[in-house]
Design brief:
Layout: H1 3-17, H2 21-24, H3 42-63, E1 77-82, H4 92-96, E2 112-115, H5 116-121, E3 136-141, H6 145-154, E4 160-161, H7 198-222, H8 229-239
Antiparallel strand pairs: 1-3, 1-4, 2-3
Helix pairs in contact: 1-3, 7-8
Length: 240
């Protein structure tokens, strides 16, 4: 795995291709895994990460979009780590992050980049300091630090983390800054602007339904005890 290139491609995809969170919450139809991430086997998780990486890369090549230079990546985002095995599906991170993470606490699939074992395979960290093999490594755009951090702060199982770059090997010095907690600044307006017109909200909801129907169907059927962000959108739409 060329983790530097994967980070470049992920940041470029978010910034230059699917850069409107208010349309599909960084969950594009092209990259959708079509299942509820935390409840699948390790091999299935590895397979979907590999597919997202390869599909995203191919689409970027096809589009002719120029990748963000490595030296500029720190202007666009940081890395966050998610432990899917510590998810309790209580809905707090989803609500606190305004839908940035989902009902299973997973960050948007457009931001997925690697698993912990893949970093171990390329000897990313010094010996003895590898992270959990099943941890999901994801990109967080600069505009969403506040919301991703909100999920981290309310997660009762501490299954989110801004990683430390203390033990990253020197060969990856060019991206070490990305593996650190960013400065968290509260935005001036709510991420999802409920001042939108009725038509704008309908467009957003239709995109979410198309891109996420299979994936979030599992959440709805398996976790009826809470009203997810997606259910709230449906309720809002029904009242119009």
């Amino acid at each position: 795995m060329d983790i530097i290139k994967v980070i470049q491609e992920t940041a470029t995809w978010i910034e230059k291709v699917n850069n409107n969170f208010n349309t599909n919450l960084f969950r594009s139809e092209e990259l959708s895994p079509h299942y509820f991430y935390p409840e699948n086997s390790d091999s299935e998780k590895s397979a979907v990460i590999d597919k997202i990486i390869s599909t995203r890369s191919a689409l970027l090549v096809e589009s002719g979009v120029e990748l963000i230079p490595v030296s500029e990546l720190h202007h666009y985002g940081r890395i966050m780590i998610f432990d899917p095995d510590s998810t309790v599906v209580d809905g707090a991170p989803e609500a606190e992050s305004a839908g940035y993470v989902d009902g299973g606490d997973a960050p948007p699939w457009d931001t997925w980049m690697a698993l912990g074992w893949q970093l171990s395979m390329i000897q990313f960290y010094d010996y003895g300091h590898d992270i959990g093999p099943g941890f999901l490594i994801a990109w967080v755009p600069e505009s969403h630090y506040f919301y991703a951090n909100g999920a981290l702060e309310v997660a009762c199982m501490d299954n989110f983390a801004w990683p430390s770059n203390e033990f990253i090997r020197s060969r990856y010095d060019s991206i070490k800054e990305l593996f650190s907690k960013p400065v968290i600044i509260e935005p001036g307006a709510h991420l999802l602007n409920y001042g939108k017109t009725h038509d704008e909200h309908n467009v957003m909801h239709q995109e979410l339904e198309r891109n996420s129907k299979l994936y979030y169907g599992d959440i709805k059927t398996q976790h009826e005890v809470k009203k997810s962000f997606w259910s709230k959108l449906a309720i809002w739409k029904s009242k119009k």
